[in-house]
């Protein structure tokens, strides 16, 4: 705005500065809802006082103001329809790629022999993961009092898109596609895609309230692609164990979001702290999300574990870890308060951290007390992160804003899970697993793939997996932040609070084909109508004439 202001001042005739600047300001702050360009320009012009209208300005200023007003209308129209165009492009691309390269697995076809058994085995886990992603994650992020619609509905949007896109990318990297030119999908592939899409939702939690739906869709496209490539690198090339995907999903998604937030926060001019708060019923909705995630978390860690004995261990280890983590969370939360009270932020997030920390080793741990110890350590670490690390280090030192506290819920527990994978690879005697150890560590010496690793070399590879995950998340997150902050994408308007659902939703009483939109404030008061918008500009003109800055 400073550059535009200076340029307009340089070319304006004497006495025309006020009218030109006022026109540019109106152009930048108004989103026209009228169909005709000329009518829009004429209406805005008529709203100006006679002394500051373009008609009273010199020829240069009048032409410049008219041109800017028309360009502004085109730009606003482009940004209003940008999401629809981008979503249409993505969906058409998905349909074309599925049509050419994707087929159902033979178990889903009429000539399949084991379809019923296959569905009965995997579909219960498939349902549980769906509830976690579409219900649990959405309601968990609904604690913001003015961002409930977006927390739940954008969560649904991103998860739906990511499942389609991730399934495609995983198929393109499969041996079946390389050999035959197409790939097949089953419930197992869709379930794995659900788990991978969780990384994008974790990133969304870090950036909640800082991006528009368009920017979130662009971010989901990039991050899900990077997540699939990271999985392929760690599982198919390095052959590490990450049974519950704590590294490639939770740790990656959290630090990807934090790196992106660091770049986005420098661009964001809105003081987001002003509306970053909750009320009683929003906290209750968030607690509902916590309960859904808590109940179904064992299914998430067991879904990608094989064979059945490893899946059985993953369920029991996850459950014991989460119960221990919950008790320790309440304990430490009470100790952190001078009056011994509980903090709902700790209860909503830290009670889930035990399931994340044990995810990577959920199929490895052989004794119950180890799972309980892991859960207790994670509860302590997560609450300490909320109390000390986030406010004193991230926000004050790094100037990094983490809306939902994903660093303490996903980042630290995911990092701990990676460290535990190194520890337990060295701790347990390989003889305790027998010949099935190659199901946990695929490249184990004497395994089906003819590997040459022992417990020491496997521990080294597990450590390398941690470093690669952190480096990939940091670099790709910052690059994605630079991409989504580009001016081509619609941004949260700086004159409104970024936490307002009003920016993206309208009342249900409006029809799909209505041509005008009258928003409603969260306090259920009438918003800006056409007449009140023009009145606002008249008041702005009066402020400018009195020497008060409108910038």
UniProtKB/TrEMBL annotation:
<dbReference type="InterPro" id="IPR029020">
    <property type="entry name" value="Ammonium/urea_transptr"/>
</dbReference>
<feature type="transmembrane region" description="Helical">
    <location>
        <begin position="284"/>
        <end position="302"/>
    </location>
</feature>
<protein>
    <submittedName>
        <fullName>Ammonium_transp domain-containing protein</fullName>
    </submittedName>
</protein>
<keyword id="KW-0472">Membrane</keyword>
<feature type="transmembrane region" description="Helical">
    <location>
        <begin position="125"/>
        <end position="144"/>
    </location>
</feature>
<dbReference type="InterPro" id="IPR024041">
    <property type="entry name" value="NH4_transpt_AmtB-like_dom"/>
</dbReference>
<feature type="transmembrane region" description="Helical">
    <location>
        <begin position="345"/>
        <end position="365"/>
    </location>
</feature>
<feature type="transmembrane region" description="Helical">
    <location>
        <begin position="371"/>
        <end position="389"/>
    </location>
</feature>
<comment type="similarity">
    <text>Belongs to the ammonium transporter (TC 2.A.49) family. Rh subfamily.</text>
</comment>
<feature type="transmembrane region" description="Helical">
    <location>
        <begin position="409"/>
        <end position="428"/>
    </location>
</feature>
<feature type="transmembrane region" description="Helical">
    <location>
        <begin position="216"/>
        <end position="235"/>
    </location>
</feature>
<feature type="transmembrane region" description="Helical">
    <location>
        <begin position="247"/>
        <end position="264"/>
    </location>
</feature>
<dbReference type="Pfam" id="PF00909">
    <property type="entry name" value="Ammonium_transp"/>
</dbReference>
<feature type="transmembrane region" description="Helical">
    <location>
        <begin position="156"/>
        <end position="178"/>
    </location>
</feature>
<dbReference type="GO" id="GO:0008519">
    <property type="term" value="F:ammonium channel activity"/>
</dbReference>
<feature type="transmembrane region" description="Helical">
    <location>
        <begin position="459"/>
        <end position="484"/>
    </location>
</feature>
<keyword id="KW-0812">Transmembrane</keyword>
<feature type="transmembrane region" description="Helical">
    <location>
        <begin position="83"/>
        <end position="101"/>
    </location>
</feature>
<dbReference type="InterPro" id="IPR002229">
    <property type="entry name" value="RhesusRHD"/>
</dbReference>
<dbReference type="GO" id="GO:0097272">
    <property type="term" value="P:ammonium homeostasis"/>
</dbReference>
<feature type="transmembrane region" description="Helical">
    <location>
        <begin position="314"/>
        <end position="333"/>
    </location>
</feature>
<feature type="domain" description="Ammonium transporter AmtB-like">
    <location>
        <begin position="115"/>
        <end position="488"/>
    </location>
</feature>
<keyword id="KW-1133">Transmembrane helix</keyword>
<dbReference type="GO" id="GO:0005886">
    <property type="term" value="C:plasma membrane"/>
</dbReference>
